[in-house]
Amino acid sequence: MAEHAYIKLIPGSTLEVVQLDDIKELFHYYKTITEKTGVQLDWNYSENAFPYEIIDYKADADYIHLKATEDRYHSIFLGVGKEQVKDSEGLAALQHYIELILPELSTYGDKGKANEFSKFLAKKLKGELHLFNKRVMQYNLKK
């Protein structure tokens, strides 16, 4: 059975609406910073930190497919969506989110990387992270 985690963009997040291109851009930034860490450590850290290639995947919805380039990993899917929620005043509002999906064939390595990527994305977007184990982490400084 597939597992799901969500990064919800709440009031105060850096973006109100997220697109797949925004996620790709953040992953390219992630790869850049891990390359710089690898240079400092004199080790090829980038390939170990991001052992996937980014593939656009289209089924009934748009997704990004992170296909593994290493043996210990298989794949992770990322998609974007929106849902109706009630705001603090009780009015209906539209909330955008990023969904991370681990298919049945995913490995423990994929789950670890998905947790790492979700925390990175939630921190950069200042969002609300709903982890695979149903716990919630806030990366948005509340006033």
UniProtKB/TrEMBL annotation:
<dbReference type="InterPro" id="IPR015062">
    <property type="entry name" value="DUF1885"/>
</dbReference>
<dbReference type="Pfam" id="PF08968">
    <property type="entry name" value="DUF1885"/>
</dbReference>
<dbReference type="InterPro" id="IPR036294">
    <property type="entry name" value="Rbstp2229-like_sf"/>
</dbReference>
<protein>
    <submittedName>
        <fullName>DUF1885 family protein</fullName>
    </submittedName>
</protein>
